[in-house]
């Protein structure tokens, strides 16, 4: 037991402490005060303590730390393997039956004392594991989840409360060059997704063999802009405009299909006929039918060698347009942050400061120079030029110079595109939980909402889109179906509760009912009711998931439209 182990260990260390006492007594009695060898007394005692401590580390502390570390690694791997095979996973060690449980009895020993030093075995093991986990986590950040599991197992099995390593969860920062991103802006917007709230770009699919996703945050862009200077932001406007124009031309080319245009024109005629009668918005079921019709149209048209569907080829340019706009917004946010930080270094009253310096140095040129520098450092958010509005005007001028008859009813495609985006978003989130990534893997894609808001602003179709009431119709549809499913689930649960109550009230089975087959019929009815209840709950979860995705799209698009309307000029 723990008490026996401690007693024996402490007796051994006490035996090692006896020579130290005799050495100190001999030197104290034989060496007179003021003798040169008097200082060696403490030196000999210190060396003896170091010798005992080294022996204790070599024979007890280090082997114990290594054995516990090995056990934690094996336990973590066993838990992962069991979760993959569907087993029970790792079972906590029992100190009475498992040999590994003896380690805990050693860890629970009181601190050991020897030669005036105190050694806490549990604290030594804890420091070793924290140091080891931190070192290996910095080398392989993708294994941070593994070391988190090992910390949890150490607390459950050995009672070791290990501190977190303080590192970001599987992430690290390295230099990001915005100039290189701008030079390859077409590749960048196609490989990264935009998070509007955090202003972070996340890689859509990791590179082959990589164990982590690359991301570009606002902090990384700030560092790069500070390195290159604020002039790079003005240069980025033309490059992003060229990227937007390419995507808009690709979108216009797809919309130039006569079959697609006739299909959308048919929807326009139906909507015009129904808006003044009973329909208050564009129905969700109608949009689903439109998605199916576009799918049939895509199956009939094999002119494009791409394996992507027509809606996918329509959705991708919209998303890439939003990603490009998001990058411009991130650049402007970086500029605002840098100007705000620089303005803290400028004097509160630049005019007075420049006059005093000019009077002191008797140089009017010095005061003028300080005035110009302070004016350049001054940060005024209201005076910032809106690059988003500039890009809207630039692409609007480009669109006016081309044939717009094919894009004048683009807003009627938005419901079908929203449904396609919802399906792609759910597939991307589901792929996050798989090891073999066969398609794009992402959990956020605000670029699509940003691109939709930008396109309807460029085409001047904001009012038409609001009039069809798409998101209001979606909200009413989900609310109506949600209430219906809740009613079905409530009634089925009531039936099931009544059936269970009737079974409990009947203590003796009826032989006649078994003979007549009524018992089998009752069992079949209960099974059917259970299937209906399970089906209703599955539909409810699916409906809730779709509603959450649509709400995410609605709020992202609403925020993007506010950004595009806000013109600080």
Automatic annotation (TrEMBL):
Record-annotated WASH complex subunit 7 C-terminal domain positions: 371-564
Taxonomic superkingdom: Eukaryota
Gene Ontology, cellular component aspect: endosome; WASH complex
InterPro entries (alphabetical): WASH-7_C, WASH-7_central, WASH7
Domain WASH complex subunit 7 central residue range list: 26-341
Pfam families: WASH-7_C, WASH-7_mid
One BP annotation, GO: endosomal transport
Name the record gives this protein: Uncharacterized protein
């Amino acid at each position: 037991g723990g008490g026996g182990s401690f007693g024996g260990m402490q007796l051994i260390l006490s035996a090692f402490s006896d020579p130290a006492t005799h050495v100190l007594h001999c030197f104290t009695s034989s060496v007179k005060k003021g003798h040169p060898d008097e200082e060696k007394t403490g030196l000999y005692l210190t060396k003896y303590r170091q010798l005992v401590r080294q022996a204790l580390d070599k024979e007890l502390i280090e082997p114990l730390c290594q054995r516990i570390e090995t056990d934690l690694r094996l336990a973590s791997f066993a838990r992962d393997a069991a979760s993959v095979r569907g087993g029970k996973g790792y079972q906590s060690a029992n100190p009475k039956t498992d040999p590994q449980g003896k380690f805990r009895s050693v860890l629970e020993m009181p601190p050991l004392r020897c030669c005036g030093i105190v050694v806490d075995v549990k604290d030594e093991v804890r420091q070793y594991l924290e140091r080891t986990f931190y070192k290996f986590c910095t080398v392989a950040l993708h294994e941070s989840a593994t070391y988190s599991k090992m910390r949890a197992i150490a607390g459950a099995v050995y009672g070791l409360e290990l501190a977190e390593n303080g590192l970001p969860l599987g992430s690290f920062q390295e230099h990001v060059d915005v100039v290189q991103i701008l030079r390859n802006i077409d590749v960048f917007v196609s490989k990264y997704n935009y998070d509007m709230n955090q202003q972070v770009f996340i890689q859509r699919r990791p590179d082959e063999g990589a164990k982590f996703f690359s991301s570009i945050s606002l902090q990384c862009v700030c560092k790069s802009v500070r390195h290159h200077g604020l002039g790079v932001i003005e240069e980025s406007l033309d490059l992003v405009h060229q990227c937007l124009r390419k995507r808009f031309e690709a979108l216009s080319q797809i919309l130039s299909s006569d079959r697609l245009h006739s299909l959308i024109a048919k929807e326009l005629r139906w909507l015009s006929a129904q808006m003044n009668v009973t329909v208050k918005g564009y129905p969700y079921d109608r949009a689903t039918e439109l998605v199916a019709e576009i799918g049939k149209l895509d199956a009939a048209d094999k002119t494009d060698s791409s394996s992507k569907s027509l809606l996918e080829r329509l959705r991708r340019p919209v998303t890439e347009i939003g990603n490009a706009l998001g990058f411009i917004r991130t650049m402007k946010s970086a500029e605002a942050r840098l100007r705000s930080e620089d303005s803290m270094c400028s004097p509160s009253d630049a005019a007075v400061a420049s006059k005093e310096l000019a009077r002191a140095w008797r140089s009017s040129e010095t005061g003028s120079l300080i005035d110009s520098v302070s004016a350049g450092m001054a940060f005024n958010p209201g005076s910032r030029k809106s690059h988003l509005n500039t890009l809207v005007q630039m692409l609007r001028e480009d669109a006016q110079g081309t044939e717009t008859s094919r894009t004048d009813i683009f807003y009627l495609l938005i419901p079908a595109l929203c449904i396609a985006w919802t399906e792609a978003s759910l597939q991307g989130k589901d792929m996050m939980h798989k090891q073999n990534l066969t398609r794009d893997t992402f959990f956020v894609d605000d670029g699509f909402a940003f691109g939709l808001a930008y396109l309807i602003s460029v085409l001047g179709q904001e009012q038409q889109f609001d009039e069809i009431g798409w998101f209001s119709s979606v909200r009413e549809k989900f609310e109506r179906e949600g209430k219906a499913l809740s009613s079905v689930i409530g009634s089925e649960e009531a039936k099931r509760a009544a059936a269970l109550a009737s079974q409990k009230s009947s203590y003796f089975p009826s032989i006649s009912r078994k003979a007549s087959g009524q018992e089998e019929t009752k069992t079949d009815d209960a099974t059917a009711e259970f299937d209906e209840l399970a089906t209703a709950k599955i539909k409810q979860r699916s409906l809730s998931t779709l509603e959450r995705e649509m709400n995410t799209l609605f709020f992202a698009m609403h925020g993007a439209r506010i950004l595009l309307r806000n013109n600080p000029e």
